[in-house]
Amino acid sequence: MSTVEKSFPVSWDQFHRDARALAWRLAGLRSDWKAIVCITRGGLVPAAIIAREIGTRLIETVCIASYHEYTEQGELKVLKEVAPFLLEDDGEGILIIDDLTDTGKTAGLVRAMLPKAHFATVYAKPKGRPLVDTFITEVSQDTWIFFPWDLGLTFQAPISKGTAG
Ligand SMILES: O=P(O)(O)OC[C@H]1O[C@H](OP(=O)(O)OP(=O)(O)O)[C@H](O)[C@@H]1O
Ligand code: HPA
Ligand SMILES: [Mg+2]
């Protein structure tokens, strides 16, 4: 996305709760998930939390880069594909995990690799939502989600003194 009007900062605590809420939903769908395929890098963090909750130890990565300059999305580049043995059965019983879906381009690309897999993200924006099977929180398309691994503690000016984010 390129027009960012609002920000949605997420703390580690909130992210852990939201990822755990996603794990509860996924655990309720089936108890024998065969493997998790996480989309790097953002999907690594929820995948670790979800894998612990649902007891999955087979965890694969699909490595994709697209957002090169902060909010500007460039061409999607697949840096590493999914291991061939996981492509059997078109991904039936496999969980694909990412931190969020925004335009849905990343989700569309990975869905094409594993058409029968279940795609889950912690957060979703409206354009990406139709490509995701399960998510926890939706934010508007003009909102940028700031993940805890991209944030640090900084001084905040009092609301009365300046512009509040
Ligand atoms: O729905 P889309 O518009 O395709 O965007 C969503 C993707 O963008 C971000 O990843 P990014 O490519 O920035 O890489 P990263 O996970 O390494 O930060 C995010 O983690 C999703 O994977
Ligand atoms: O809102 C977002 N936040 C962080 N990374 C992203 N990649 C696409 N959209 C976003
Ligand atoms: Mg990503």
From TrEMBL:
Residues annotated for guanine binding in this entry: D102, I145
Keywords: Cell membrane, Glycosyltransferase, Magnesium, Membrane, Metal-binding, Purine salvage, Transferase
GO terms (BP aspect): GMP salvage; purine ribonucleoside salvage; XMP salvage
Pathway: Purine metabolism; GMP biosynthesis via salvage pathway; GMP from guanine: step 1/1; Purine metabolism; XMP biosynthesis via salvage pathway; XMP from xanthine: step 1/1
Chain positions recorded as xanthine binding sites: D102, I145
Gene Ontology molecular function terms on file: magnesium ion binding; xanthine phosphoribosyltransferase activity
Cofactor annotation: Mg(2+)
CDD domains, per the entry: PRTases_typeI
Residues that, per the record, bind Mg(2+): D99
Mode of membrane association: Peripheral membrane protein
GO cellular-component term (any): plasma membrane
Documented EC number(s): 2.4.2.22
Residues noted as binding 5-phospho-alpha-D-ribose 1-diphosphate in the record, renumbered to the chain: R41, G42, D98, D99, L100, T101, D102, T103, G104, K105, T106
Binding site for GMP: D102, T103, G104, K105, T106, W144, I145
Top EC category: transferase
Catalytically driven reaction(s): GMP + diphosphate = guanine + 5-phospho-alpha-D-ribose 1-diphosphate; XMP + diphosphate = xanthine + 5-phospho-alpha-D-ribose 1-diphosphate; IMP + diphosphate = hypoxanthine + 5-phospho-alpha-D-ribose 1-diphosphate
Domain Phosphoribosyltransferase, first and last residues per copy: 11-155
Protein's recorded name: Xanthine-guanine phosphoribosyltransferase
Source taxonomy: Bacteria, Pseudomonadati, Pseudomonadota, Alphaproteobacteria, Hyphomicrobiales
